[in-house]
Design brief:
By secondary structure, the chain is an alpha+beta fold. It is about 45% helix and about 15% strand.
Length: about 500
C-alpha cells in the first residue's frame, strides 16, 4: 500500500476502498483477453477444455445424422459435396509404376487397369476403383470418414479385393480388447502409444439389423480414411459439422419464402353483401338458394370471365405482395459463408459465374485448388497408396507379376506416381500461352506441363514420335504443320525468283 493509500485509509476509508477496487479492475483489464471475459456480451458463452475424443463422442452420431439428412434434402449441401468429388477425384487417376524397368512398369500398369474394374477390385462387384474413391471423398465430407477392409477372395483377377464400410459399423459398445493391455475406444483398439492396432466391426444383415457379435480385424487389413485435427482425436467427425446449421437455416428460409410466394400468387376475392333479399323479380334472384339466400360458394375466377353479381354486392380483392426478390441477396451470402467454411469459393459451390471474370476465376480456382490438394493428399496417402501396395503384393504372391528380388528390395518396386485427370482450361488461348512462356523461361518443365494435363511426359513424347514417323511415311510434313516450319526438302522445292541486274 502506497503512502497515499495509507493516508486515505486513516482519514477517508471510503476513498481508500474505492482506490483499491479501481486499481484491481484496472490491473485485470490490462492483462485479460476480451475473448476470455464473462461480461454482458459473453455471459452465455460457456465452454470447457476436454480431449478431442471426449468432445466429439457425445455429438458425433447426431451431427452425422443431420449431415446425412442435408445430403439427401439440401441442394446447397450437395453443391459442396459434389464440388469435392468433382475436383479431388474427377475422372480418376492414372497409375505410373516407377520400378526402373520400363517393361515391368508397363506390365504393372496394364494389370492395374484390369484390376480397377468393379468385378476385380470390389468384393460386391458394384463399383470400380474411381467410383470407390469418389464415394470415399463424399462419405468423408458427410460422415467424417469411411472404412475399407482388405479382403482376399476368389472370382477376380487377383485374390485381393476391397470391402467398403460406413463408420457406423464400428462397434462403439465394445470394451474388451483383443490383447491384454490395450484399450478399445469407439470400436478401435489402441496400444500404449495410442496407435490403432485393430478394429471391432459390428455385423449387420442387408436390412441393417445386428446379427452377430463384433468381429476383430487387425489394423494391417483396415484402411480408416478420416481427417485428424487434434492430437487427442481418435475417430472421425463430419467435415460439414461447422456448416450444417447455416445450410439448415438457408433451407428453412427457402421453404418460408416458397410458401410466402405461393400465397402471394393467390388472388382472393371477398364479396361484401347488403342484407339478403327475401325474394322479388329481376337479377337479384339469379344466385339465390332454395331458402332465399344468395350463394357464391364454389364460384372461381377464370381468365376473361364475364358474370353478374347480386344487386348491392361489392367485390373486395386481396392481392398479397411477395418478397422473393429480397431472398437472392440473403441466399448468396449464406452460400458464400458455407463455401468459406469448407475452404471453397462461392462460385465452386453454387456454379454461379455471373460475377466472375477471367482474373477472378483464375484466383478462385487457384485458392480452391489448395483445398482440393489437401484432400487429394490424404486420399492418395491414406487410401490409394495403401491399396496399390497391397495390390502389388497380391500380384507377386499370385504369380501374375514375377519379380525375383521383390522381397529384398520391396520399396524400389513399389515406387509409383499418380497422375490426376486434367481440368478444362478457363481460357485455352491464355492458358496455352502461359504454359509456353513458362516452359521457355524455365519456370516449368515439360514434365510438369504434361502432368498438369493428366499425361505422362514419356507417353507424350512417344505419341509425338509415332505421329511424326507415320506422317513422314505418308509424305506429310507434320513438323511444319505443328511448328510452322517447313522441311529443307520443301524449302528447296519452292520456286525462286530470278534476280534482275
Amino acid at each position: 500500500m502506497s503512502f497515499l493509500d495509507s493516508f486515505y485509509s486513516v482519514f477517508n476509508p471510503k476513498k481508500a476502498y474505492e482506490r483499491q477496487v479501481y486499481r484491481k479492475f484496472l490491473d485485470e483489464a490490462s492483462r485479460n483477453y476480451d475473448a476470455g471475459g464473462y461480461g454482458r456480451i459473453n455471459a452465455r458463452w460457456r465452454s470447457i477444455n476436454e480431449s478431442g475424443e471426449f468432445t466429439d463422442r457425445w455429438q458425433r452420431d447426431t451431427i452425422r445424422a443431420r449431415a446425412r439428412d442435408l445430403e439427401r434434402n439440401s441442394d446447397m449441401a450437395q453443391g459442396v459435396i459434389s464440388a469435392f468429388k468433382r475436383n479431388v477425384v474427377g475422372r480418376g487417376f492414372t497409375l505410373q509404376a516407377k520400378t526402373g524397368d520400363p517393361d515391368l512398369n508397363r506390365e504393372i500398369d496394364a494389370l492395374w487397369k484390369i484390376w480397377c474394374r468393379r468385378r476385380n477390385c470390389d468384393v460386391t462387384a458394384t463399383q470400380n476403383f474411381n467410383q470407390i474413391c469418389r464415394m470415399a471423398v463424399g462419405r468423408k465430407k458427410v460422415d467424417g470418414g469411411m472404412i475399407i477392409l482388405k479382403r482376399y477372395t476368389t472370382g477376380g483377377i487377383l485374390p485381393f479385393k476391397m470391402q467398403c464400410l460406413e463408420v457406423d459399423e464400428l462397434a462403439k459398445e465394445q470394451m474388451t480388447p483383443q490383447k491384454k493391455g490395450n484399450r478399445v475406444v469407439g470400436g478401435i483398439e489402441y496400444n500404449e502409444y495410442n496407435r490403432a492396432v485393430g478394429y471391432w466391426v459390428q455385423q449387420y444383415s442387408l436390412d441393417g439389423m445386428t446379427v452377430d457379435a463384433p468381429v476383430y480385424f487387425a489394423a494391417k487389413d483396415v484402411i480408416f480414411y478420416f481427417s485428424k485435427s487434434r492430437p487427442s482425436q481418435v475417430r472421425e467427425m463430419s467435415d460439414m459439422a461447422h456448416s450444417i446449421t447455416r445450410i439448415r437455416d438457408a433451407n428453412e428460409f427457402i421453404n418460408a419464402v416458397s410458401i410466402k410466394e405461393r400465397i402471394a400468387a393467390c388472388l382472393a376475392v371477398f364479396i361484401k353483401r347488403t342484407p339478403p333479399l327475401s325474394g322479388g323479380l329481376g337479377r337479384s334472384n339469379a344466385m339465390m338458394t332454395p331458402d332465399g339466400k344468395v350463394d357464391y360458394a364454389g364460384k372461381t375466377l377464370s381468365p376473361g370471365m364475364i358474370t353478374e353479381m347480386a344487386a348491392g354486392d361489392e367485390i373486395q380483392v386481396v392481392n398479397p405482395q411477395g418478397s422473393g426478390a429480397d431472398a437472392g441477396g440473403f441466399l448468396k451470402t449464406q452460400q458464400r459463408l458455407v463455401g468459406t467454411g469448407q475452404g471453397l469459393s462461392y462460385e465452386a459451390t453454387s456454379r454461379d459465374m455471373s460475377d466472375s471474370n477471367y482474373s477472378s476465376a483464375r484466383q478462385s480456382a487457384a485458392e480452391d485448388g489448395l483445398t482440393y490438394d489437401e484432400e487429394r493428399e490424404l486420399l492418395i496417402e491414406c487410401v490409394m497408396d495403401e491399396v496399390y501396395e497391397t495390390f502389388l503384393i497380391s500380384a507377386v504372391l499370385s504369380g501374375l507379376v514375377e519379380i525375383k528380388d521383390f522381397w529384398t528390395d520391396k520399396e524400389k518396386y513399389m515406387a509409383h506416381v499418380w497422375v490426376a485427370s486434367p481440368k478444362p482450361w478457363i481460357d485455352p488461348v491464355k492458358e496455352s500461352t502461359a504454359n509456353k512462356t513458362a516452359l521457355q523461361s524455365g519456370q516449368k518443365t515439360f514434365q510438369q506441363i504434361c502432368a498438369e494435363s493428366g499425361r505422362g511426359w514419356k507417353d507424350v513424347i512417344d505419341d509425338m514420335a509415332e505421329a511424326q514417323k507415320y506422317a513422314e511415311e505418308k509424305g506429310i510434313d507434320l513438323g511444319g504443320i505443328v511448328y510452322g516450319k517447313g522441311t529443307s526438302s520443301q524449302q528447296a522445292a519452292k520456286p525462286t525468283t530470278a534476280k534482275t541486274g
